[in-house]
Amino acid sequence: MKITIVGTGYVGLVTGTCLADVGHDVLCMDVDAEKIARLEAGEIPIYEPGLESMVQANVSAGRLSFTTDPAQAVAFGTMQFIAVGTPPDEDGSADLKYVLAVAETIGSHMNEYKVIVDKSTVPVGTADRVRETVAKTLEARGERLDFDVCSNPEFLKEGAAIEDFTHGARIVVGTESERVKGLMRECYAPYIRQQEKLMFMDVRAAELTKYAANAMLATKISFMNEIANLAERLGADVEQVRRGVGSDPRIGYQFIYPGCGYGGSCFPKDVQALARTAADVDYRAELLTAVESVNQRQKQTLFAKLRQAFDGDLAGKTIALWGLSFKPNTDDMRDAPSRTLMEALWDAGARVQAYDPEAMRECRRIYGERDDLVLVGDRIQAVKGADALVICTEWKEFRTLDFAWLKQQLAMPVVIDGRNLFEPDAVKAAGLLYFAVGRGDSL
Ligand code: NAD
């Protein structure tokens, strides 16, 4: 099958590469010429485990290629996947300018039947707007060509994107058209040999399913953070509570880790966008608003704990940071709790000495060169000469630690653990002042 993917970011590149890997011919298009040039040179612009070798293998096999040329992209595939960004607008709603720009491009260049597949996370009603935009563009050209629009939201997680794409729990397709159903079945056939995973539904239901899934996961995290904050004030250990709660199969262990808040390119914007969608239809989505505000507060707890540990004066202090990405196994720093912390530290006159296994280049891209940010080559250098250590991301390599050694490195010696990686008693026994999330100490 010939497939075009428009937007070659996290979702577009993973989708295109995985579909090429099962034998389809895929052309990935992007307006970012530098990104496409790097991909053509065999370089992967993002960090995603396993992706680099998969891209290279499929490029070598001639099944995967890249372009910036919209006319070539539209001519290539019968299936035109839209995987461009849908960032939050000023009022929190999803900004559809990139999605609608792609719809216009498709309408401007198509010369035969196309299926336009909305893979970007888009509000309910967007498929209708894409359809209208394509129809208007065709009309302006004086063309009457047949096309369909369907919704196929993506559920992959960064850091495990290939596994999620190839072995996801379900493939949701919103369409009423039998022709589209047949084409989507052909597209995803290699993934449903073992088990039927295709879920056909109404377009609006498919669009809402994506937001509902992300909002539910974000709710679990904010809920547990609320319990952690309570536990802290009540002298209870939230880790024990987490195990007790998660053992109930109706609740489960996933997404109930307390921490310094959720980040990334999806949960924050999707919860806000769904709340905005609700407001647009005169419904006050109180739970969604609370999930968002609990998270905003949670992202500030690392700084609040540090400030308290230093009696409100962080000016001139050097703070070591372990982890910059919003979660392990990605270089993505969009809405990461580390950013909330760093920006608050700089405002307070402190200096940051940070290490992340994959996100340092992204950090440099976001913040540029500045005197109060030093990026170092490993976690050991990060704590050298620092007053305190803050753990923002639970990368595997941070999970073991010689506490006695750390005590000698830190001037204060304060450790703020935003991911509850260690047993408080063991850390405290080494003479460190250890503050995690919801583990009995209400600093
Ligand atoms: P991204 O920012 O990594 O990639 C988007 C790409 O689209 C960029 O490379 C950009 O240059 C390109 N682009 C913008 N306008 C374009 C145009 N007119 N033509 C061609 N290319 C264009 O974004 P992402 O993280 O891949 O997210 C894409 C969508 O998928 C969003 O709606 C997001 O909510 C959704 N999503 C993301 C994830 C995730 O984990 N990142 C998971 C599921 C769904």
Describe, in plain words, how this protein is organized in 3D.
This protein is α/β, with parallel strands linked by helices. The chain folds into 3 domains: 199 residues, Rossmann fold (3-Layer(aba) Sandwich); 87 residues, N-(1-d-carboxylethyl)-l-norvaline Dehydrogenase, domain 2 (Orthogonal Bundle); 136 residues, Rossmann fold. The chain binds nicotinamide-adenine-dinucleotide (NAD). Nicotinamide-adenine-dinucleotide binds next to helix 1 and helix 5. One of its GO terms (molecular function) is oxidoreductase activity. Belongs to the UDP-glucose/GDP-mannose dehydrogenase family.
Helical content, roughly?
40-55%
How many DSSP helices?
Answer: 18
What's the CATH C level of the largest domain?
Alpha Beta
Structural domains: how many: 3
Largest sheet: 6 strands, parallel
Organism: Halomonas pelophila
Keywords: NAD, Oxidoreductase
Domain UDP-glucose/GDP-mannose dehydrogenase C-terminal: 320-424
Protein name: UDP-glucose 6-dehydrogenase
